[in-house]
Design a protein that fits this description.
With about 110 residues, this protein is an alpha+beta fold. It has helices at about 35, 45-50, 60-75, 75-110, and strands spanning about 1-5, 15-25, 25-30. Bound molecules: zinc ion.
């Protein structure tokens, strides 16, 4: 069984179309955006597995969205998304530390360092 959900696009006025299929393999997602066509996790697929209702293009799809959320919540996607968010948070903190150290080194290379 498949559900197609229209998701707002940041790059065009037309929505992106995400087809979600529930079958014996589990829950799979296809999106028609450039990243989605290449099979990548795009912001449209991510909006759906993150239950981000604000990304819905068509308010009339709320029932379909709710059915999809039942599928998502019965799968391992919520745990994976939690793990991804934690990893991205760690990455952001590490990037911040690297930036601070680079600034320190840059200043030291100008002003000298013992
Ligand atoms: Zn997409």
């Amino acid at each position: 069984m498949s559900i197609t959900i229209l998701i707002k696009s940041s790059s065009q006025s037309e929505p992106r179309s995400v087809q979600v299929t529930q079958d014996e393999s589990g829950l799979s997602f296809l999106c028609d955006c450039p990243a989605g066509i290449r099979g990548r996790i795009c912001k449209h697929k991510r909006a759906l597995v993150s239950a981000d209702e604000s990304m819905l293009y068509d308010e009339d799809q709320k029932d379909s969205f709710q059915k999809l959320m039942d599928w998502v919540n019965a799968s391992s996607y919520p745990d994976l998304m939690k793990a991804l968010k934690a990893a991205e948070n760690d990455l952001e903190l590490a990037n911040g530390r690297a930036r601070d150290i680079k600034e320190t080194i840059t200043r030291a290379m100008k002003e000298g360092l013992k």
